[in-house]
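Before surveying the methods themselves, we first show a specimen of the format, giving the amino acid sequence and backbone structure tokens:

:::
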Amino acid sequence: MQYRITAPLANRINQEITLPASKSISNRVLIMNAMGGSKGHIGNIAHCDDTDVMVKALAQPAHGTIDIGAAGTAMRFLTAYLSQKAGEDCLLTGSERMKKRPISILVEALRQVGADIEYAGEEGFPPLHIRGKKLKGGKVSLDGSVSSQYISALLMAAPAMQDGLQLTLENKTVSRPYIQMTLQLMKQFGVASKWEENQISVGPQDYGFLNMEVESDWSASSYWYQLCALAQEGEVTLPRLYADSVQGDSHIASLFEPLGIATSFEKNGIKLIKKAPTTTNYVVNLVEQPDLAQTLVVTCCLLNIHFTFSGLDNLKIKETDRIAALITEMSRLGYRLTEPQPGSLAWEGEHCPAEQQPVIGTYKDHRMAMAFAPACLLLDCIRIEDPAVVSKSYPKYWEDLKKAGFGVEEIE
């Protein structure tokens, strides 16, 4: 199935959109609340594939098979959570793509602190046979350049370890804001930690309980920043987004400033206002916001803004190899992207023949679908393959586009 997306009349957007709740916060507080005995009330939990499987997994009995599908966050967080849950004996599995996503770095770190985990298939990859037990803890070194989710998974399990955890991060650390988010949320649950240089320490302690409402998803806001930037005129109001957010992707506000979007922080959210871009050559290190790469790449190309984005090393192990996917799909629109060095993407204005009716492949990746749909604002239309992939993080994305005046037509 495909969707054919067309722009609103006169390419204008003026709308208030209620974004989904942050799945990054939701998945973390679900684990923390469970470790504290599920005593707190967590409101406005995200309703998307990634979070739904977490809710289901945490409600399952402590044995049998837990299938998290394509939810990478759930795979990593649950691996650590189930390892420290005494009496747990389960098989943690997922989709065929999930079975090709490496997890050995996390598994080996957990084994060092006493976890009983076996590979039930190919060595180094899910599925995992996990027998939960009281973990000893202690000193562990971990490669911080691969995935911040490995680090967050270990940190959330650390308070339950007999000796706590002293985690040393080797090499450069990617997505640091996500680690900071984890530690800040743990603090809200009453868990103390210390991060000095490349070492994070968490002593043995108990999670308290917390009643909270999850804020909206800053990552989801990026598509509305993009839509405003590509429209002739744009003004969008997004409730439940705040300047003091724990979400690293709140940096999108400053990232889109040079692309012509002003952000007004108001009492209950933000307002985006279209202005003129202030750059023609955009050079940014996205090591702390890699999930925004697809949105920024598509936006810059369509605005004819040359760019070099670095710090994208871990995009190759996401839902798909996002660097390769972007190079392939942007060529359909007539843009020749390059990878000047591993973990970077660039466009220097070079074009190639564009397809007359481009159909964008999504590679089972929600962000490919949502980042390319706004291209219709500068094209007659654009077709998106397998549009249902947005359910992973933003199930109502297509409904919200319709609400803002876009045409969304199903094509067999």
Remarks:
- Residues 88 and 333 are 50 Å apart (CA to CA).
